[in-house]
Design a protein that fits this description.
Elements: E1 2-10, H1 27-39, E2 46-47, E3 56-66, H2 72-80, E4 87-95, E5 106-116, E6 129-131, H3 137-145, E7 149-152, E8 167-178, E9 181-188, H4 195-208, H5 215-222, E10 237-244, E11 247-249
Parallel strand pairs: 3-10, 5-6
Antiparallel strand pairs: 1-3, 1-4, 2-3, 5-9, 5-10, 7-8, 8-9, 10-11
């Protein structure tokens, strides 16, 4: 028996998130189906990040156990022949049998893209959120600074989430302009359910002028979901990379 790790890239538009759901297409479900068919075993993968419906990834990570004689590094080539065009393996390697992608110190990096111009662009619609309302970049940058560090992010967590702790650490959070797009880049040791999208929604409110940047401090102190802004649409969010134990797992 060996444990194989996959680096998975996908367009999440057509899927109901990562986690298997009865009667609905999911990333995990497609991986389980393709792997079981390829290896002739019942395979169930374990993912590093259970991305939401419509969210994309360039570097999500999953592991599975197998008795196959296929070398781990060759699994990606064979598996990609069985996966749909919107899910592709970028890398496959053997890892220690006790490696678990959710039970180790790690860093996850996300991007949230906002198309901020007068009219939408069809070629951007799957991977960015469109708004014609002008967003003040400097105010969004100022607000982002208050979120860096270790905080209780209960105000930025969906109310349906059940977790032992809502304390998380954000190592980096930037807001940059790239042409007609505003890109929010965030790296942390873990994220609560909808946390990145709620942060994006709150920063957009600040960019529109309906909140002041310093209100972020009050939102954190409130520890109340209703204190923060709306949950931004899923289409703008992409999991970029996952880092653990000195390794970086992305689409390279």
């Amino acid at each position: 028996m060996k444990r194989v790790m996959l680096v998975v890239a996908y367009d999440g538009t057509a899927y109901h998130g990562w986690q298997v759901q009865p009667g609905a297409p999911t990333i995990e479900g497609e991986l389980n189906r393709a792997l079981s068919g390829l290896l002739g075993e019942e395979i169930q993968v374990i993912g590093a990040s259970r991305t939401d419906s419509g969210v994309h990834a360039l570097g999500n990570v999953a592991v599975f156990d197998t008795n196959t004689r296929i070398p781990a590094e060759k699994v990606s080539y064979a598996l990609n022949q069985r996966l749909p065009e919107d899910i592709k393996i970028q890398r496959s390697v053997e890892v220690p049998e006790d490696f678990h992608p959710r039970h180790c110190e790690s860093r996850k990096s996300y991007e949230y893209r906002i198309l901020n111009r007068e009219f939408p662009l069809p070629t951007k619609s799957r991977y960015s959120h469109f708004t014609y309302v002008h967003l003040d970049l400097e105010k969004m940058q100022e607000a982002a600074g208050y979120l860096v560090g270790q905080h209780d992010f209960k105000s930025f967590c969906a109310t349906a989430a059940v977790v032992e702790s809502t304390v998380r650490t954000i190592y980096e959070l930037s807001v940059e302009k790239e042409g007609d797009e505003i890109v929010i880049r965030i790296c942390g040791n873990g994220f609560l359910y909808n946390m990145v999208r709620i942060i994006a929604g709150t920063l957009m409110e600040i960019g529109r002028g309906s909140r002041r940047p310093e209100e972020i401090r009050d939102i954190l102190e409130a520890k109340d979901r209703t204190a923060a802004g709306p949950t931004a649409p899923a289409c703008g969010l992409t999991l970029m990379k996952y880092e653990v134990q000195g390794f970086c797992f992305n689409n390279q």
